[in-house]
Design brief:
Distance between the termini: 27 Å
Shape: globular
CATH superfamily: Alpha/Beta hydrolase fold, catalytic domain
Number of helices: 8
Order of helices and strands: EEEHEHEHEHEEHHEHEH
CATH class: Alpha Beta
Structural class: alpha/beta
Strand content: 15-25%
CATH topology: Rossmann fold
Radius of gyration: 17 Å
Length: 257
């Protein structure tokens, strides 16, 4: 499938790196994919699901959030709300350069981000019809458990170096404070879009109870798909293929209504 690197101007003034995976023929629709915490657009889940959707007729723009991957800005100064601004900028870029996205897809913390963006309304989301989450936490503050050992230092010093997935990152107090201010239940209740929740019952990073909460907070139309024995990062190609296959059929049905 054709894949193009693009650059998006974000509200913070720096450039966001993104990749657009497009079908070979006329696209059925376009989507935006939000990656997991401290990940990038090139992680296996983001790349495989996006390419799988493109193979099935849905173009996908996957971006690197501020300070991650090839995007500009400093991760230590980033916030969850800033991630939402990045997503809105990606939606605007798609609307101006291809077609307004009809679907938002988010993996892990990216799932919490797409729920917040879609539930918050705004012009960038005016064309959205569907939202899909993959292994997402119900509350974005859940991510703080990943760097729990450094929380005291973050609050005391304003930032701290932490290890996430064996890689070093500097996390700022602004991110921790911003995560605590979110109201995910309200955003999900106000979603106003068709929702698909993908989650593995054996996910050891974000437990299955998170999927239950998201599903219970959301109004219909909503659907849940168990990912069986899949791990959190969808490292097995068959798991990403399953997600893209089911998601493409579901999205096409929702967008055709």
């Amino acid at each position: 499938m054709p894949s193009t690197s693009v650059s998006i101007k974000c509200p913070g003034g720096h450039e966001l790196a993104a990749r657009l995976d497009e079908p070979e023929g006329e696209p059925l629709a376009f989507a935006v994919f939000a990656h997991c915490f401290t990940c990038s657009k090139e992680t296996v889940a983001a790349a495989r699901v996006s390419r799988g959707l493109a193979k099935r007729g849905i173009g996908v723009l996957r971006l690197d959030f501020t300070g991650l991957g090839d995007s500009g800005g400093e991760f230590a100064e980033s916030t969850f709300s800033g991630n939402l601004d990045d997503l809105r900028a990606a939606c605007t870029w798609l609307a101006e350069n291809r077609s307004a996205p009809g679907v938002l897809i988010g993996h892990s913390l990216g799932g919490a981000a797409v729920l917040a963006v879609a539930g918050g309304g705004g012009e960038a989301c005016s064309g959205l019809r569907a939202v899909a989450t993959i292994g997402a936490p119900a509350d974005p503050e859940h991510v703080t458990h990943v760097f729990d050992a450094g929380l005291d230092e973050i609050r005391r010093e304003g930032s701290a170096g932490v290890s996430v997935g064996g890689r070093p990152f500097r996390v700022g107090a602004a991110l921790v404070d911003d995560l605590a201010r979110q109201d995910p239940q309200k955003a999900i209740a106000n979603l106003g879009k068709a929702l698909m929740v993908f989650h593995s019952p054996v996910d050891t990073i974000v437990g299955i109870d998170n999927a239950r909460a998201i599903y219970e907070w959301a109004k219909h139309p909503k659907s849940f798909v168990s990912l069986g024995q899949a791990d959190h990062l969808l490292t097995k190609p068959a798991d990403a293929e399953m997600v893209s296959g089911i998601l493409s059929v579901w999205a096409a049905r929702v967008l055709a209504r």
